[in-house]
Amino acid sequence: MKKIIIFIIPIIFLFISCNEELITIVDEYNTPYNIYAIPGNNKVSISFWSGIIASDFAGFNIYVGTSANFVQPNDAIKNAQQALPTVASSNHTRTNFIIEIPNYTFNNDNLYYVSVTAYGTNNLVANKYIETIINSVLPVVPRLEGTGTGTTLTANTTGVGTMDPTTGKVTPSSGWKVQYFGYQTNFNTVVNVTNNTDDSFDSEAVYSINGLYIFKNGNQLAKIWITSDNSYQWAYQSDASKWWGI
Questions:
Q1: What does pTM read for this prediction?
Q2: What angle do CA 66, 70, 74 make, to 5 degrees?
Q3: Among candidate residues 120, 140, 160, the one where a domain is terminated
Q4: Dihedral of CA 48/49/52/58: which sign?
Q5: Are 202 and 178 in contact (CB under 8 A)?
Q6: Residues 85 and 109 in one domain
Q7: What is the rounded distance in angstroms from the CA atom of residue 221 to the CA atom of residue 145?
Q8: Which domain holds residue 70?
Q9: Measured between alpha carbons, how far is residue 230 from residues 24, 155, 225 in Å?
Q10: 26 falls within a domain
Q11: Tally of structural domains, the chain
């Protein structure tokens, strides 16, 4: 009886070993989130949050075009070496990235669509790369911006209003109305104007240093950030109806 048991056990182990399969474990990538596009003067930046622990993470692919349809990864912007990812990164901690989009020519007042994905290379997968799926494509229109001095608020040579530190008021020029977005520490804290109907804008607003204001006249938008009692930063969008942002 003992001889029979000894003979059966090696057969069992042989059977198990012949049916073993190699299992490949590939770390998943988290999709970038809280994405928004920031227009500039003939340029665009993209802001998003990401934090990917995987060791094969290489950076981010950025997509730009005049259509909202992108083919991954073919339509991603190539880096200076004509390779991917668009922007290399070795940061694995949760971070708010703000990246000026490279290697692409933007023109003011033209509508573009942008997106971003996380990207890495891995020889254990069939495609030899890993990329998150595009789940957010954002419109953006680059526009003029600059700085001004004095209490008359001018954006692109157009007078949009006045500020009066004495009375504590910001008053729009004729044909314009204003919406106040409070104290801000960054000119681009507000980009998209979600309440963009005429009724959402007022005939005056409270004056505040570091106050951010958006003025509206038809489809025109002007953004004013008051930096002192006689200086400000401005941006101007001639036709914001393409995306209602500035």
A1: 0.86
A2: 115
A3: 140
A4: positive
A5: yes
A6: yes
A7: 12
A8: 33-140
A9: 64, 15, 11
A10: no
A11: 2
What are the C-alpha distances in Å from 48 to residues 128, 136, 160?
Answer: 25, 11, 32
In a domain, 49, yes or no: yes
Question: Does one domain contain both 43 and 133?
Answer: yes
Torsion on CA atoms 45, 47, 50, 54, rounded to nearest 10:
0
Size of the chain, expressed as the number of residues it contains: 246
Return the structure tokens found at 244. 């209602």
Q: What digits encode the pLDDT tens for the residues 133-161? A: 999 999 999 999 999 999 999 999 999 99
CB 234 within 8 A of CB 223: yes
pLDDT tens digits along 16-62: 444 444 444 446 799 999 999 999 999 999 999 999 989 899 999 99
pLDDT score at 27: 60
Contacts 24+ apart (CB under 8 A), 22-30: 24/124, 24/125, 26/122, 26/124, 26/125, 26/130, 27/53, 27/54, 27/55, 27/56, 28/54, 29/54, 29/57, 29/118, 29/120, 29/130, 29/131, 29/132, 30/118, 30/132
Tell me: do 118 and 74 sit in the same domain: yes
CATH number, domain of 66, equals 2.60.40
